[in-house]
Amino acid sequence: NPEEKICRAALLNRGIKHFHEDEIRKKEVQKKIIKNILLNSRKRELEQVNYTILFNHISLSGITHLVRHRMQSIIVPKYNEIYNFNEFIIPESIHEKNLTERYKSIFTRTQNVVDKLVADGMLKCDLVYLLLSGLTVPVMTTMNANELFTFISLRTCSRAQWEIADNAKELLKILRAKHPVLFSFYGPTCYSTGICPEGRMTCGKMGEVQNSFADNKF
Length: 218
Description:
- By secondary structure, this protein is mainly α.
- It is built from eleven helices and three strands; from the N terminus they run H-H-E-H-E-H-H-H-E-H-H-H-H-H.
- A three-stranded antiparallel sheet has the order 1-3-2.
- Helix 1 (2-14) crosses helix 2 (27-37).
- The longest helix is centred in the middle third of the chain and has 20 residues, at 100-119.
- The protein is elongated and about 70 Å long.
- The mean pLDDT is 95.
């Protein structure tokens, strides 16, 4: 019950006499408290709950975006132990330009090169230098709700790189389905705060974006 735990932390912050209030179990009360928490700069109450997430197929390139978030406990597998040249991501632009077969052939040819080099004595630990950024692996991480707020704010923005944005949006859909009181407040910065931080780089569609996240149609 993460919403209740977060709200009790907020009450405790105001004084121990509030900690056991029964009103805290009501969703409308939880929404009011969480909304106030999100107005603060520190949001320590959100750090009292953690979520463990499995990104089952994230590319080696996509991992570079994920690991930039420092407040997490992330498990990335050893690439030279888990790589599979049949597991890769295909960008939508490749499909749109009818380049899918040519794109796939790159992974097949690379696999053949790897097999020949290994047969000739290449060390397994050096295989990482032959892997392609499009190869996908599973990655597990644990973030508290405060870091998730930062992650989702940045990575569901229309300016985020498309793969990490797709992962962030899918994650948000799952979290909203399980814990709607808390995660109904989560989304890109323009949605969660009402302010676009991108300046001249804004998408210019803030109202449209806000409505899509409010309606769960992102």
